[in-house]
Automatic annotation (TrEMBL):
Phylogenetic placement of the source organism: Bacteria, Bacillati, Actinomycetota, Actinomycetes, Pseudonocardiales
Origin species: Amycolatopsis dendrobii
Example of a GO MF term: DNA binding
Residue ranges occupied by any HTH gntR-type domain in the UniProt entry: 15-82
PANTHER family given in the database record: GLUCONATE OPERON TRANSCRIPTIONAL REPRESSOR, TRANSCRIPTIONAL REGULATOR, GNTR FAMILY
Keywords: DNA-binding, Transcription, Transcription regulation
Signal peptide positions (record): none
Name of the protein in its database record: GntR family transcriptional regulator
InterPro entries linked: GntR_C, TF_FadR/GntR_C, Tscrpt_reg_HTH_GntR, WH-like_DNA-bd_sf, WH_DNA-bd_sf
Length: 225
């Protein structure tokens, strides 16, 4: 999935510290380490990350807007109770926007850019380790998204990408094979300049990813009481 490089944000200024905190809280939620309804200990998290509580509080505001965290007056921040359909819906929306980008890219990609995508697909299938496949996957979809030549679409996709579960290549034994097959279908549609087919294949790629995300979270005990 084109959700992340797998690497967290770098330390640095306030914005990076806020991003670091948000990334870590998301990771803990979607790994099952933090469960639905559990209170987030801001002081302990700040100590663990070696940062002040201010970027933690700012990160929690962002995560509240994303629906990952819920603030309760005079009680604090708690992990929101997301349903399986919440996860599926997020991936479906991600797929709809990514599909629109692919539709535009089918018309815009130069022969050189198409070849670069084929090269990335080849490298993903050449025996690279799972972390490297995740990185190459991110780059594959990033190039398609930017080929849409729409700053608005890229901005929306950047927001959506931050809020999905990560580690598909490491957590799902069958995902690399499925992703490779899907990438070839996407490349075939782009090479044929078939905008409608590119959009359809990308939308299904993300929809299938949503089902796998639900399965992954099930195994990690995300919905266990």
């Amino acid at each position: 999935m084109p959700d992340s490089t797998g690497a967290g944000p770098r330390r640095g200024g306030p914005a990076n510290l806020k991003a670091l905190a948000a990334h870590e809280i998301r990771r803990r939620v979607f790994s099952g380490q933090l469960r639905a309804g559990e209170k987030i200990d801001q002081e302990a998290l700040a100590d663990e990350l070696g940062i002040s509580k201010l970027p933690i509080r700012e990160a929690l505001i962002t995560l509240d807007h994303e629906g990952v965290v819920e603030h309760i007056a005079r009680r604090g921040a708690f992990v929101a109770r997301m349903t399986r359909d919440d996860i599926r819906d997020h991936y479906r929306v991600f797929g709809l926007v990514s599909g629109l980008a692919a539709e535009r890219a089918a018309k815009n990609l130069s022969p050189e850019s198409l070849q670069a995508l084929h090269d990335l697909a080849d490298r993903m299938e050449s025996g690279a380790d799972r972390a490297e496949q995740e990185r190459l996957n991110f780059e594959f979809h990033r190039r398609i998204n930017y080929a849409a030549d729409s700053r608005r679409l890229v901005s929306i996709l950047g927001i959506l990408a931050k809020t999905v579960s990560h580690g598909f290549y490491e957590a799902h034994e069958d995902w690399p094979g499925k992703a490779h097959e899907d990438h070839r279908k996407i490349l075939n549609a782009l090479s044929a300049r078939s905008a409608a087919r590119a959009r359809s294949v990308v939308e299904k790629h993300f929809s299938d990813g949503g089902e796998r995300a639900v399965a992954l979270l099930e195994r990690q005990g995300f919905w266990d009481s």
